[in-house]
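Before the break, one more example. Copy the sequence into your notebook; we will annotate it together after we see the structure.
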Amino acid sequence: MSDEHRILRELADRSAIRALIENLAHSIDQRDFDGILSRATPNVHFLQINEGAAEPNIELYGRGELLLELKNLNNIESLSTLLGSCLIELGGSEATAETNCVSYVRFVIDDDHVLTTVSYRLIDRFTRQDGGDWLIADRHGIVAWTDTRPSQP
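Here is what the structure looks like once it is written out:
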C-alpha cells in the first residue's frame, strides 16, 4: 500500500469514527433507539461510572440490555449533547476514541422543571465490520461532575 493510500485510508477512518460518535450523540438526544442500536455491535458493552468511583452506576451487555436502559430517556423532557475534543487512535480493524462532552438534561419533577448539566468523557472502542463500516463495541462514560438547578418552563 502506498503512503498516499495509507494516509487517505486513515483520514477516511478517522472521519467515519468521528461521524459515528456525532450520530450516536444525535440519536441519543432525539431518542432514536433504532439509530443507536444500528451503530452498535450485537454484544456492545456500556458502562457509566463517576470519576474516581470503584463501581459503575450502570453496566450493560448487548443491544437488548442497552435498549431497556435507553427507554429511560423517554422520561426526559429534552436532552442536548455537545461534543468537544476527540482523540482517535487507529489499530487495524479496531479503533479507540476519547471524547469530552457536556449534556444538558431537562426533567419535569412534580411539575417543576429541573436542568442537570453533566460533564463527562467517553472512552469508546470501535470495530470495523466486513463491509468496512465502523460500529461501537464498548463505551465507558466517565462522569466528571454534574450540576442540577431549577429551570424555567
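The domain at 3-150 is CATH 3.10.450.50 (Nuclear Transport Factor 2; Chain: A,). The first strand starts at residue 40 and ends at 50. Try to locate both features in your own notes.
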